[in-house]
Design brief:
This protein is an alpha+beta fold. The protein has one domain: Uncharacterised protein PF07063, DUF1338 (2,3-Dihydroxybiphenyl 1,2-Dioxygenase, domain 1, Roll). It contains 21 helices and eleven strands. The strands form four sheets. Strands 2-3-4-1-5 form a five-stranded mixed beta sheet. The chain has a two-stranded antiparallel ribbon with strand order 6-9. The protein has a two-stranded antiparallel ribbon with strand order 7-8. Helix 2 packs across helix 3 and helix 10 packs across helix 11. The two termini are about 35 Å apart. The chain binds 2-oxoadipic acid (OOG) and nickel (II) ion. 2-oxoadipic acid (OOG) binds next to strand 1, strand 4 and helix 19.
Length: about 450
Amino acid sequence: MSADRFVSPDDIRSLFAQAMSTMYRTEVPLYGTLVDLVAEINDAVLTDNPALAEQLERNDERARLAQERHGAIRVGTAEELATLGRLFAVMGMYPIGYYDLSVAGVPVHSTAFRPRTASALAANPFRVFTSLLRLELIEDTALREESARILARRRIFTDEALALIDQAEREGGLDQNDARRFVLAALETFRWHSDATVSLPTYQALSNAHRLVADVVSFRGPHINHLTPRTLDIDAAQAGMLARGIDAKAVVEGPPPRRCPILLRQTSFKALEETVNFPDGEGGDAGTHTARFGEIEQRGLALTPKGRALYDQLLAQARDAGGAGSTGQDYSTRLAAAFTGFPDDHDTLRREGLGYYRYALTEAGRNDRAAVADLPAEALVSAGLASADPIVYEDFLPVSAAGIFQSNLGGEEQRAYAAHSNRDAFEKALGMQVEDEFAIYERLQQESLDSLRVG
Ligand code: OOG
Ligand code: NI
């Protein structure tokens, strides 16, 4: 039978992202409020700024914008992570990048599962930031062993999901009917369970070790803890959250406001305090847990290693000034001051090799193939024969992620772990290597350069 009886992984991913969004709207209604707010802001920005609308259109970013989300989950064992890797592969999502959050006092390391080709990203860029608990960072031996025992007992995938993953791997894909079954079965892994699997005292002991340990170990599965829409104006989104009385985090993470947005800026509302039922005791105990929150992000230019090094340096400068971190009143002033050192026009960013760009012939270029054949890309851009649009950053930022983690853990647990980043251990658990994000952006840029000379 031919391969076209199979639904494309891009379509399965779109179905899944939609199903996840519908589920999270029901679970956390405030998420729906954020989605509506972002849609309103994006419409206004695109109406006010036709040049940006045109650029997004040219770059295949306009259509995906309304669907664009990322989520996050945390798992407890190598087997869970490896199976997730297989589940995401069915939807064309692959592990990109390694993030060590132990340096920020969070006992996990992470990757982002996401699509990686231009056409897959244009179809639907859905990404899931996925963290693996580092049990070895729990100091109390008895508690560490108990956690491992609890985790070893749970099954976070349904039998149907496992069977369909096997089938997709064996046959090379899923047909329409099986793809629909797969999406529904996969969704079960990410659902919230208000019944804990451990007693209240065990939950409290885990929580004392680290609240994130309790979040991972105490439940039947790795509930999706947020789903983030992408805005074109995060400062408007932050103001909109406050205007609606939403308990937004104090600072927007990432770079300061700029004319040319770079990387990622994020804000969130604090995690909800939710009622949880604990087994044991007379008819069980009731308690509460905070895990699930809402987040909005703005994405900008993907930086080259050189641009990223400059970003890291300036961010550290802003955070270290006066030893105040990102909490001081004057943080936004310090941040803006530090980032005067980062060029803020696309010609300079491009010529200095600080960011990745996607090149395409303009109408003039399409009409003058002879000129195009002889000139280097930069000259084509200067001559108006080609456009160079920013390639959007599709990944995450460890400092930003740590800030989001912290604000949802009560904001007190700043203590860094002495552990080293351990990419090898992460990849061993995952059962494959994580891809280098820079290589992907480099390839996207090169493909666009190659396309100038053909057709
Ligand atoms: C993940 C936090 C990271 C982001 O946007 O940086 C993240 C988590 O809290 O599990 O989603
Ligand atoms: Ni997030």
